[in-house]
Amino acid sequence: VQDITSGKDFPFEHNLDYLNGVSFTKGCYIGQELTARTHHVGETRKRLVPVSLSRIVDRDMPQRLLAGKRGAGKLMSVYEDIGLAVVRFPYLDMPLSVGDTGVTAVGTQPAWWPSDTS
To answer: Distance between CA 88 and CA 110 in Å, rounded?
Structure first.
């Protein structure tokens, strides 16, 4: 799996909490304290979402996603003109530049997410 960067990405960023991939009752595991704190505080600033691309990107992944000059996330993988990207919530449904490729990406919230996700 190349969409998750080992040792750098958090389980919530890749929707593992929504997919029952995180235990909140199991004993000790690496990252347990941060995972539990994030769950109880309820603050996840970015998540993996599907993106539509304006055209095919033929670059190595990941690629930075930019809103103007601001970092908005990273494009993790692509297949033709669709992909998966970790996008910060304020930038969902906005056209974002894929690095310096001239390609734009728009991330959308999946329908299967809980309705209270923001």
So the answer is: 14
Task: Convert the pLDDT of each residue in 24-66 to its tens digit.
Answer: 677 676 666 666 666 667 677 898 999 999 999 888 888 999 9
Give the count of beta carbons closer than 10 Å to the beta carbon of residue 88.
17
Rounded CA-CA distance 83/98 in Å is 11
**Angle at the Cα of 99 from the Cα atoms of 97 and 101, rounded to 5 degrees:** 85
According to DSSP, the residues that pair with 82 across neighbouring strands are 52, 79
Can you list the alpha helix ranges (DSSP code H) found in the chain? 32-41
CA–CA distance, 111 with 26 (Å, rounded to integer): 29
Strand 82-88 to 95-98 pairing: unpaired
> Residue 104: which of 50, 51, 49 has the closest Cα?
51
Which residue, 116, 4, 98, is CA-closest to 107?
98
Close Cβ partners of 23 (under 8 Å, ≥ 6 residues apart): 29
